[in-house]
Amino acid sequence: MSILESWDQWKSFLGNRLQHAQNEGMNDETISNLAYEIGGYLSENVDPKNEQERVLADLWSVASREEQHAIASMMTKLVQNNGSGQQ
Fold first, then answer.
1. 21: which of 3, 26, 35, 39 fits an S-S bond (Cβ 3.0–4.6 Å)?
2. For the chain, what percentages of helix, strand and coil (3-state, to nearest 5) are there?
3. Global pTM?
């Protein structure tokens, strides 16, 4: 099963990657920019595998660049707060 098929597994995966990036000294602005780039890549190249991803894809498709940055930032906060179960 792909990590994209389960919303909880996807959040956990992202949370672990975020924690790793922070441990390596990546600052919040760099992380936010990477999240934006990843969101754009997923939107253009990956078919959503669950309802939550479909909602994100639909929102991303109608959002302005600024709003897409906000979505990426909110996803970063979401996984930082509860994606990996680690704080």
1. 26
2. 80, 0, 20
3. 0.82
> Count of CB atoms within 10 A of residue 13's CB?
16
| 18 Cβ contact list (under 8 Å, min separation 6) | 31, 76, 79, 80, 83, 84
CB under 8 Å to 61, separation ≥6 — which residues? 43
- For 11-48, the DSSP string reads HHHHHHHHHHHHHTT--HHHHHHHHHHHHHHHHHH---
| pLDDT tens figures, 25-82 | 999 899 989 999 999 998 999 899 889 999 999 999 999 999 999 999 999 999 987 7
